[in-house]
Amino acid sequence: MATHSIVELIRRKRDGAELTADEVAWIIAAFTSEDIQKYHMSALLMAIMFRGLTDGELTAWTEAMLHSGEVLDLASVPAPKIDKHSTGGVGDKVSIPLAPIVAACGVAVPMMSGRGLGHTGGTLDKLESIPGFSPNILPADFVSGLLEHNLVLAGQTSTLVPADKAIYALRDASGTVPSIALIASSIMSKKLAEDLDGLVLDIKVGRGAFMKTVDEATELAETMATIGRRYGTATVAHLTAMDQPLGDRVGNALEIEESLEILRGGGPADMAEITTTLAVEMLVLSGIARDADAAISMVRRVVGNGAALRKFRDVVAAQGGDPEIVDGTRPLVSAPHRHTLHARSAGFVRECDALAIGMAVVRLGGGRVAAEDSIDPAVGVVLAAKIGDVVAEGDELATVHYSTSDQLASALPLLEQAWAITPDPVEAPPLLISRISGR
What we know:
This protein is an alpha/beta fold. The protein has 3 domains: 6-66, Up-down Bundle (Transferase, Pyrimidine Nucleoside Phosphorylase, Chain A, domain 3), CATH 1.20.970.10; 82-159 and 169-329, 3-Layer(aba) Sandwich (Pyrimidine Nucleoside Phosphorylase, Chain A, domain 2), CATH 3.40.1030.10; 337-422, Aldehyde Oxidoreductase, domain 3. Helix content is 46%, strand content 15%. The strands form 4 sheets. It has a 4-stranded mixed sheet, with helices on both faces. A 4-stranded antiparallel sheet has the order 6-9-11-7, with helices on both faces. Strands 10-8-12 form a 3-stranded antiparallel sheet, with no helix packed on it. Helix 1 (6-14) packs parallel to helix 3 (38-51), helix 5 (95-104) runs parallel beside helix 11 (252-263) and helix 5 (95-104) crosses helix 12. The protein starts with 5 loop residues before the first helix and ends with a strand.
């Protein structure tokens, strides 16, 4: 591979030139090996933020990221291998009940998840509120986990797509997180490293999501679906609403409780709807189900007979977690204090601001501002009223679970502005916006 001048490549990208595949490969390799500086890569990322990546550059960037470290070899796993990825939202705990439901139906799910940063929660943080649970699965152990359980619930390892981990940290620090090209290549390089047969994407749209508009979310979904198609990985995306939190509970242990309700056949209607929708996509994409009706029947069966809950219990135990949490014989950690928010007027809920609620949970200690921040798994918010609901003056809007009075005082200004009530009837917004296929 030829050696290049990083400063010259930055200038060319800044001025709108197209980088060659060899140049892109050199950039990723040199940054991964620390042969170019972080400030150089930050400057290049900003140039990409404004100039974008051409189709050729995007393909080369994703390819170089993908092969910056190990790639899983799951050829010895006979079941079809399908994963799901969400772009992140407030109260989005869907992966936790979804993965065991699909695995119980016969699909191998090598689920690699992330941690929360900012107002969006992370699947790994939620799972780690189960005492003892460890997401630290070595690449060599993925095969045994999938052969035994059809499911691994893991975090990204240091050897899988290391370039992405390093570049993502710079994107957050340099203000380049919203770049669609960089988001798409980041997500898809990690997912393609899982040696998948298919991928289902949940692209969140709205105030509590990174993608604020349907147009932005559609562009991101189409970009990722195109990358998947180029690699022979069937990819389907759903755009789903994130103006208000998903489900009724926001906070790590609280969201595990809600996930267990879904696995037992209960839980909030919006959580049940999106979990079933994505499970159907995964089952049809895998070929396990011939069509949506057959997939729905399979989902209902494994939830109804307890197979999905048992699958989750087995994987929790296999990864060091306390299975009694899943059984319901031991409670999850609980915050010591409660505070109730009340409606100041009667009417209809017009807003239940996902961003404000997510940031309030961060202030309570349930999320991170910086990657090294610790998390209190017990704190959070339990919603009692969402968009379209009728409330009387003094009715409960939410209950805040908190650990210290200082944290509550910090979170309350956000929460007190999160709900808007109007005298006019409000229709509950649809959860599912559109479906985009890259097959």
